[in-house]
Design goal:
Layout: H1 9-21, H2 24-39, H3 43-59, H4 61-83, H5 85-94, H6 100-109, H7 118-136, H8 140-149, H9 152-155, H10 163-179, H11 184-191, H12 196-211, H13 230-235, H14 239-245, H15 249-253, H16 261-273, H17 282-289, H18 295-316, H19 323-328, H20 332-353, H21 358-370, H22 373-392, H23 394-403, H24 408-426, H25 429-445, H26 451-468, H27 473-482, H28 486-515
Helix pairs in contact: 1-2, 2-3, 2-22, 3-22, 4-10, 4-17, 4-20, 4-21, 4-22, 5-7, 5-18, 7-8, 7-27, 8-12, 8-27, 10-11, 10-22, 10-25, 11-26, 12-28, 18-20, 22-25, 23-25, 24-25, 24-26, 24-28, 25-26, 26-28
């Protein structure tokens, strides 16, 4: 049975269930149980094996650090939300924008302070800049696209200080653990140049923003004569419920909790009609009442980035190593965790000194951290499924049945395109990475390209879905905030992304040809 078709069955179950239910966690859980019962086909043995895999993978020291980092990162964002920092910075910048080009430049620059997660960026920046762009009569689709292109594609390649980094390093830890690689963070850094779609979309977005959008303004609309599209009226004021009050931004973003767009809108409308069913998010309620103050954002963010970079270099330092070598050899997971702990302590002291009540600080800390629990569960299940697949001989099967018969130059492009289809159907970048990364590792071990190239292609395909899919919470949130039809906006992004997808496919093919 080892290395036979049986080793593929858990992934068939995983993909089928995830696509049918739009719930990646359910697919991973069923895939894990199927794999364990295939390995131990006795009533209690399979259950005991599943629990053992979860406990073993979650108990590895590096994995514990990553889980703790994810929880504390949610706490960090929760504290930012209740402090009024983002609101204060945005209001300060709004008064300094004088032209369409300046508005677009601010939209790009604001990513330096809201890069922690795509939904966090969309729901904090979009409401502010939409008012600014209305003064210059810029098309809403162009404004939305500019924010979107600096959300998921940018978050996917920022190497420090985000939930994306922790999650991606966690996936690389799986590769390092099962493939004998030395440093998960070094392997993650090696994948960044090969996330072709993220780089291509950032270049495309920059070109469109500064050479087309900023030079084209639509006709002025007389005051008082704006007639919203019927679908726009349906979507008004639903984003806070969909993204924060119902699931939490990170839970939806990662695909740990996911739903079709139409169902999301319908659920949001039902909750509006039945107020007694609403369960408001206390962090969002406190954020709305927070006094705007830009320092409450700037100081913690500067502390987080500064300490992360410093601790990263320190952890990788050794006599004779250059700064670059120290950065690559660093224990990034440990450095990020230490800097995050220090930053959260500093935030609590800063906010308390500036008059924020302690109970408000505790709500931001605990509720923000709890939003990350679906992400943590998702990551633990990925580790467990990857482990059981390895024991069933999934890598050997892929090497024998795929790498042996398919030209190597076509494997990575095919993996990328397949991932694009999966991510478009799921609308989740994290979910796509969870499903396809074990396959990428197996193909890379079989000689179809290095681990970095294969993982980079998977990261690129997931970035595509998180950015373009109409089922992506980013697309739904952005369309709702900007009051544009969801499907029309999704198609607008898809048309723009097709050329980068074609270029990426060609790029992966050329890499395969060079590697032959």
């Amino acid at each position: 049975m080892h290395g036979s078709f049986v080793s593929v069955v858990p992934f068939i179950v995983l993909i089928a269930v995830a696509l049918l239910t739009k719930q990646v966690i359910v697919g991973l859980a069923l895939g894990l149980f199927v794999g364990c019962y295939l390995e131990h086909p006795r009533p209690m043995a399979g259950l005991e094996a599943a629990i053992a895999y979860i406990g073993r993978e979650a108990g590895i020291s590096g994995n514990v650090n990553l889980m703790l980092f994810l929880y504390l990162f949610g706490s960090f964002v929760g504290l930012l939300r209740i402090s009024g920092g983002v609101k204060g910075f945005s209001r300060w910048m709004e008064g300094h924008i004088r032209s369409p080009r300046g508005a677009f430049l601010f939209t790009w620059l604001s990513s330096l302070f809201t890069f922690m997660a795509p939904d966090f960026r969309i729901l904090t920046v979009a409401p502010i800049v939409s008012r600014v762009f209305d003064r210059f009569h810029i098309r809403k689709e162009q404004v939305a696209f500019t924010i979107d292109v600096t959300a998921t594609p940018l978050c996917a390649i920022v190497p420090v200080g985000t939930a994306f980094v922790a999650y991606m390093v966690g996936l690389m830890h799986t590769a390092a653990h099962h493939a004998g690689s030395a440093s998960p963070y070094a392997l993650f850094l090696a994948t960044l140049p090969y996330n072709f779609f993220a780089w291509a979309m950032l270049l495309t977005g920059a070109f469109l923003t500064f050479f087309r959008f900023s030079g084209r303004a639509r006709a002025a609309i007389p005051s008082g004569h704006v007639v919203p599209h019927p679908e726009e009226r349906r979507h008004r004021h639903l984003v806070p419920r969909l993204a924060y009050e119902r699931h939490g931004a990170f839970a939806v973003e990662t695909g740990a909790v996911s739903f079709p767009q139409d169902a999301a809108v319908q659920r949001g409308i039902r909750r509006e009609e039945g107020a007694e069913e609403d369960v408001p998010d206390p962090v969002e309620a406190l954020a709305k009442r927070a006094h705007p103050n830009a320092l409450n954002l700037m100081v913690p963010l500067g502390l987080l980035l500064g300490t992360t970079l410093s601790f990263t270099v320190i952890s990788g330092y050794a006599p004779g190593r250059t700064l670059t070598q120290a950065f690559v050899q660093a224990n990034e997971a440990q450095a990020m965790l230490e800097s995050l702990v220090l930053t959260i302590v500093g935030m609590a002291v800063l906010y308390a000194v500036r008059g924020t009540p302690l109970n408000r600080i505790m709500v931001g800390f605990l509720q923000g951290g709890n939003e990350m629990m679906p992400v943590i569960v998702l990551l633990v299940l990925i580790w467990a499924v990857s482990a059981v697949a390895s024991d069933l001989g999934f890598a050997q099967f892929c090497q024998r049945e795929i790498v042996q018969y398919v030209p190597k130059s076509l494997i990575i492009p095919a993996l990328f395109l397949f991932g694009c289809l999966i991510s478009y159907a799921l609308g989740s970048s994290f979910g796509t990475w969870a499903i396809l990364m074990p396959l990428a590792f197996s193909l890379a071990q079989g000689g179809s390209g290095g681990l970095a190239i294969a993982a980079g292609a998977v990261f690129a395909s997931g970035t595509f879905g998180g950015f373009v899919s109409p089922l992506s919470d980013n697309t739904v949130a952005m369309a709702t905030v900007m009051k544009v039809p969801v499907m029309a906006y999704a198609n607008y992004k898809l048309k723009t992304a097709l050329i980068p997808v074609a270029a990426c496919t060609l790029g992966y093919f050329l890499l395969g040809e060079i590697a032959r």
